Amino acid sequence: MIISAVVLATAAAFCLALGTHFQQHAVAAMAPGLRRRATWLTGLGLMGLVTVLNVIALGLGPVSIVQPIGAVSLVFAVLIGRRFFGLRLGAPLLISIAVTLFGVFSFVTTSARFAHDIVATEQSVTWLLAVLVALSLFAGLFSISSAGHIPRVVMTGIVFGTVAAATHVLARSVVVAGLPGLDALGLRWWLLLTAVGLASAAGFWLVQTAYACGPAETVLAGLTVIDPIVAVIIGAGFFGEYTGLTPLATLGLLASAGIGVGGVWMLSRFHPKVLSARTSALPGAPAAGAADTATTPAATATAAAAPTLRTLHQGTQS
């Protein structure tokens, strides 16, 4: 079952990379019109396919293996960006991606050695339900705040990591016990399913605003690092999925997480689009312009809601 989960998660990673590029390009680079609507809806369809593939994969394998495989989407994203969007593959970009992938795969190699079946109790499911509802509300408020690109990516990763952990609980209950097994959690199973839908919608909206104020590769890098870390933390803290972790293994997980986060930071600093924008803002800029540039991240993030609303509205009218 684990091999099937890996194959499905890899397919989901490819769809994630492709869908991210479609949606980011539609939201940030295309003029309103039929092509923009079609591009956005294509990305939406791919994101829906990602969800289906990940749900099945999370039912077949542990979250510590399934979620980090999403990091492969970074490789797919770079290849897609180079082929279709003219992305320049300079040394800083490649090194940033390599550092991110090393951190993620070190994390999954360590955590997978200690993963075992979850123990879902009514209390743990209730706590997870409360966390999902709180994150949904916070993500909604965060999306209309003046936060910059990276904070939005981080918050989205936290939301989707929690959604992944909850989806794992729901899917495993069906795979292990079948549909009658849902009775073990009773109403809480359906409440948790509803909360997953709510948090997914909030995360989806938040990631749209992240697309509008930063490159697709940064979004993918942040999600593929933060998402599995959060999912593993929830699995360990709420459901005992990683009991038996030694101090050395815990130290290795923390180091791997730090390396992965460092890779995301490098990517946010050295991505060609970021370097190009930084360079074009320097020569001959007047003092007032420099002040405006200094406030650009917050202003861009705030303004991101407007094009995203138009894009979402066009998508729903098709």
TrEMBL record:
Gene3D superfamilies: 1.10.3730.20. The chain crosses the membrane at residues 52-79, 91-112, 124-142, 154-175, 187-207, 219-239, 245-268. Keywords: Membrane, Transmembrane, Transmembrane helix. The keyword Phosphoprotein does not apply. InterPro entries: EmrE-like. This is DMT family transporter. It comes from Brevibacterium spongiae.
